[in-house]
Amino acid sequence: MNAHEIDYEIHGEEMQFVSVVLDPNEAVVAEAGSFMMMDPDIKMETIFGDGSGQDTGVLGKIFSAGKRILTGESLFMTAFYNIGATRRSVSFASPYPGKIVPIDLSEKGGKFICQKDAFLCAAKGVSVGIEFSRRLGRGLFGGEGFIMQKLEGDGMAFVHAGGTMARRELSAGEVLRVDTGCIVGFSQTVDYDIEFVGGIRNTIFGGEGLFFATLRGPGTVYIQSLPFSRLAGRVLAAAPKGGGKDKGEGSLLGGLGDLLDGDNRF
Predict the structure, then answer these.
(1) Does 3 score more than 60 pLDDT?
(2) How confident is the model at residue 243 (pLDDT cuts 50, 70, 90)?
(3) What is the phi-psi region of residue 127: left when phi exceeds 0, alpha when psi lies from -120 to 50, beta otherwise?
(4) Burial of 239 (0-12, 13-18, 19+ CB in 10 A)
(5) Distance (Å, rounded) from C-alpha 145 to C-alpha 140?
(6) What backbone torsions phi and psi does residue 164 show, to the nearest 5 degrees?
(7) Cα torsion through 250, 256, 261, 265, rounded to 10
(8) pTM of this prediction?
(9) Is residue 265 pLDDT above 90, yes or no?
(10) Which residues, 6+ apart, have CB-to-CB distance to 17 below 8 Å?
(11) What is the mean pLDDT of the segment spanning 8-13?
């Protein structure tokens, strides 16, 4: 194998974390900010790009890191090496409530496509890049679902799904329509495109967006019930207004209460 062969265990139900067990000289790479805890003899090192070794030389490393900027991620990742003589573990936590999904790339034909913010960590040697769309519809209207990450190699990778995760096995030609933000990832055999919802009432009053993703089998698709953008939007909408004084969720006054607040000035 090109990637390090790691063992792991996923803990918890709603706020999960994954413990990766490393043999001596094995390593795992992770997104900055996902680290939770580690045993002695684990050495942490910030690396430029994904550390897969596919891009060599200064220009190659710059290109590898530059691809990550396009997905909104940091230029750097963190590698964790076991420099001891016995097996040691390092753990990584979910960024918000949901499920951690283990992906064995050797079972996915060496490639898995996922949302740009779904990747959590992977065995060292797994390449983390971007999946460019060749279709105009995806580029113009894809929104959250346009710029996808691709995980390539033959090792283990871990992605995060917000809320409850649904796994669908699509047969050849079977179609599934999904909100673009609810996609976690899918195998490389799945054909992916963007469709217009259609209808004047749907467009103006639907509240579900103008476009959805169309996934066509064969292949495996992972869907999340709570995309981070949706969670953030609900939190922002519920944030107290009017100088931080909250009238309460059940207040009948609602926004009118803000107008009657003595702190408001006209």
Answers:
(1) yes
(2) low
(3) beta
(4) exposed
(5) 11
(6) -95, 140
(7) 150
(8) 0.78
(9) no
(10) 10, 11, 36, 91, 92, 93, 94, 100
(11) 94
Token readout for 91 is 């753990």
HEC string of the chain equals CCCCCCEEEEECCCECEEEEEECCCCEEEECCCCEEEECCCEEEEEEECCCCCCCCHHHHHHHHHHHHHHCCCCCEEEEEEECCCCCEEEEEECCCCEEEEEEEHHHCCCEEEEECCCEEEEECCCEEEEECCCCHHHHHHCHHHCCEEEEECCCEEEEEEECCEEEEEECCCCEEEECHHHEEEEECCCEEEEEECCCHHHHHHCCCCCEEEEEECCEEEEEECCCHHHHHHHHHHHCCCCCCCCCCCCCCCCHHHHHHCCCCCC
Task: Give me the mean pLDDT over the 99-113 stretch.
Answer: 95
Q: Which residues pair with 39 in a beta bridge?
A: none
Structural tokens at position 8: 């792991």
Tokens of 226: 């709570």
Q: Any idea which residue has 């995806």 for tokens?
A: 138
The CA distances from residue 179 to 159, 191, 220, in Å, are 18, 15, 17
Q: Count of CB atoms within 10 A of residue 247's CB?
A: 18
How far apart CA 92 and CA 2 sit, in angstroms, is 23
Give the Cβ contact number of residue 264 at 10 Å. Answer: 10
Q: Which domains does the chain have, with CATH numbers?
A: 7-237 (3.60.160.10)
Q: Is the pLDDT of residue 65 over 80?
A: no
CB count in 10 Å sphere of residue 51: 22
Q: For tokens 């107008």, what's the residue?
A: 259
Q: What's the pLDDT score for residue 144?
A: 45
